[in-house]
Amino acid sequence: MTNLNPHKDEQDIIMPRRRAYDRTSTCVKCKLNPGNLVIQHSIYCRSCFFPLVSNKFCRALDQSLDLSSYMATIERARNVFIGFSGGSGSAVLLDLALQNCIVTPGASAPGRHHRASKQPPTKRRLVWKKAYVGFVDISGAFPDTNDRTSEIRTMMSRYPQYELVELRLEDAFDILWWRSLSKPLPATVTASVEPGSNSSRDVHSPTSLELLRTFLGSLPTPSAVSTSISHIIRLLLLHAAEARSCSHLLLGSTSTSLSISLISSVSSGGGFVLPSEREEIRRSVKIVKPLRDVTNKECAAWVHWSGLQVLQGGISLYEIRGVTQLTKDFIVGLDKNFPSTVSTISRTCAKLIPKAGTSGYCAFCQRSIQSGVEEWKARISIRSRQEPLPSTEHRVHPLCYSCHTAFNSKGSKGSGNEVQGTTAKFPVWVGSEELAVGEHKMMERHEMRVQLEEFLIQD
Amino acid sequence: MPPKLCALCSTARAIIRRPKTGQQICKDCFFWVFETEIHNTITHAQLFRPGDRVAIGASGGKDSTVLAYIMKTLNDRYQYGLELFLLSIDEGIKGYRDDSLETVKRNEVQYGLPLKILSYDELYGWTMDRIVEKVGRKNNCTFCGVFRRQALDRGAASLGVDHIVTGHNADDIAETVLMNIMRGDIARLGRCTQICTQGEDTIRRSKPFKYAYEKEIVMYAYFKKLDYFSTECIYSPDAYRGHARAFLKDLEAARPSAIIDIIHSGEAFEVADEVKKKLPRLCKRCGYIASNDLCKACTLLEGLERGAPSLGIKDRTRASAEDLPDHFRTIPQFHMPDTSQHKTVAPSTTPLTSDTLATTATSPS
């Protein structure tokens, strides 16, 4: 009988499905208790899980804080600012920071007992004098969503040790907010502010909200919107931290979200500032991500077993269609079949450093600008039969490669959001510059044409 | 509604939207930008010197078919003074490679370029069909990749060439950057965006299509009426790479500049000095570049000969450089070519740059 299935012998491709854990269902740590959670093919019981995560947190923090000289650390102790989004990562961060960094000596989270460190109390990390928690409400960017600040206030009432700082995305466009930080205004902004303005800080002028929406509406792609919002959140937290004499800004990025940020940054041309995604120092504040070795799954388990509250519902930046969302779907999908991918991405990127020299800082994201980018772009991608335009590196408000690409790169259909007759302005720290938006066989010609269909202009 | 005019020349009717920039341009301007960008890449990186003997890695697929055409065109137009050759590797895959090699043979006639075909069978004593019989389809790409790389160098050495150019395009490079980050392959990540790689003991190898989008290469072949074979190998179920490729296509659909942005990222970082890097050395058995006592090809070949193909893939115990039984086949000794005795044009020490070529270019036909 003729074999009608030419691929019959392909059965050897199909591998037996790998088990979720390697050998046994007993905890790999204590080897006594039955396991409760599988983490990268290893199984842990509940009581071993907490020290595991706690150690990861402390190790990452130690690396970032350089606690080689403990007393020196105490002497120069300042304040800490913790970014809180209401998600599981930042909820775990608040909990761990309280247990391990002892913001208020002797205090512990209500209803919880210390179980994190085996070190005697004198050796515990008394790092900061005062702790602030900053929440940035992003409802201003999404008209159909609600302000979540009141829910955050309720959640934070659990932690009297932390002082809540309420921020809004539109603050980035609010000159009064900027003034409240006692920061000098950029020269171009100063000229346009009327002296004697007496608006209250608590009442947001409609203008800042409008400015925010006009700015986001003028961006050419959804990818640019999500990238811009995340930069604005980061910088709002950074400026708020600096204004409160904080030496560190802690963010609850997990290894999963860090990997997403890293790949997303690479995909957006941000290779030069890749190390900044992991850790960066801006002015006097160091941004640290102490959960960078803890996965989303571990955070979810911590939240569940500790009974922590997280903000339910609402909009996430991952829901905005674009590069970040695609990256998130890709990484999370890959993580299911290749569980070590997430940590590999993070560890690989930790070994990378910028290659070329810098030419100042990006006016928008405030990260370093790689020199020679304009010339590179003109050479590899010809856009005119004329000589290339002068380099933007000499502009008053220079932009880095990623921001420049985000603000100018169009979507695949060649058009993005078009706001007719509006002029968008950058956030306050940039100044008043207006945003210029702008099967194996011989290939037949008709098959080539099919591949090119979307690029061919019909008569 | 009047036809949309070309964004570059403003005179002819635009017939395409350029994948790389989104600009609507005419056919002549597309040829001009595509060829000029390749020329810019070649001259800026100073890839060649007048008199160089250059082998074009030719598989019969779209990239290498267009590469052969472009290299011939630019060499004539800008008077690079290169001696060009076509170099093909026959992996021994029935019904796949033998067909696509027909395209390469046609190119040999069309462009008047000498062709050298080197097979796995004559070099290693194994064809891919037989290797797949032994190892199955899961790891066969490892064998093919390692064997092909060395086969190209050996073929180039037999032709006495200074340089090999391959058709790796921007999509391939962007995909490799992502793959190397996800696999934690620091050594390859550091060099995968280099346009030219050369060690003391390897032949210079370059990628003139480094910044050329795959779609534009297809577009160029279409409008120039170049014929090629689709080159999706019948033995390539590389699941991991497949994920990366699908992700890249999604990114490109969301933002076409993503491919160039990834390459830009890859060029902007480097591996920190403190990260331990293995220094290359020479294989004790065949003399080819290696990172251990034996090169990867010798290790894999020994595994095949011993009937233990997992040697060098999974086994922790590596093959040793000790003598093999006489009946085992080994790869012949590799010697770097002495190209000077082959040159028909007096070699130059001045690299080809836009300055040195400014006075010699002839207008495109």
Automatic annotation (TrEMBL), chain A:
Family matches, as SUPFAM superfamilies: Adenine nucleotide alpha hydrolases-like
Main location: cytoplasm
HAMAP family per the UniProt record, alphabetical: CTU2
Pathway membership, UniProt: tRNA modification; 5-methoxycarbonylmethyl-2-thiouridine-tRNA biosynthesis
Annotated GO CC locations: cytosol
Key words of the record: Cytoplasm, tRNA processing
Subcellular localization, as worded in the UniProt entry: Cytoplasm
UniProt entry tagged with the keyword Transferase: no
Single GO term (MF): tRNA binding
Organism: Hydnum rufescens UP504
Name listed for the protein in its UniProt record: Cytoplasmic tRNA 2-thiolation protein 2
Superkingdom of origin organism: Eukaryota
Described function: Plays a central role in 2-thiolation of mcm(5)S(2)U at tRNA wobble positions of tRNA(Lys), tRNA(Glu) and tRNA(Gln). May act by forming a heterodimer with NCS6 that ligates sulfur from thiocarboxylated URM1 onto the uridine of tRNAs at wobble position. Prior mcm(5) tRNA modification by the elongator complex is required for 2-thiolation. May also be involved in protein urmylation.
PANTHER family: CYTOPLASMIC TRNA 2-THIOLATION PROTEIN 2
GO terms under biological process: protein urmylation; tRNA wobble position uridine thiolation
Similarity comment text for this entry: Belongs to the CTU2/NCS2 family.
TrEMBL record, chain B:
A single GO BP: tRNA wobble position uridine thiolation
One Pfam family of this chain: zn-ribbon_14
Location of the tRNA(Ile)-lysidine/2-thiocytidine synthase N-terminal domain: 54-232
Source taxon at top rank: Eukaryota
Leading EC class: transferase
Residues spanning the membrane: none
Annotated positions binding ATP: G57, A58, S59, D63, I89, G167, D172
Protein name: Cytoplasmic tRNA 2-thiolation protein 1
Organism listed in the record: Hydnum rufescens UP504
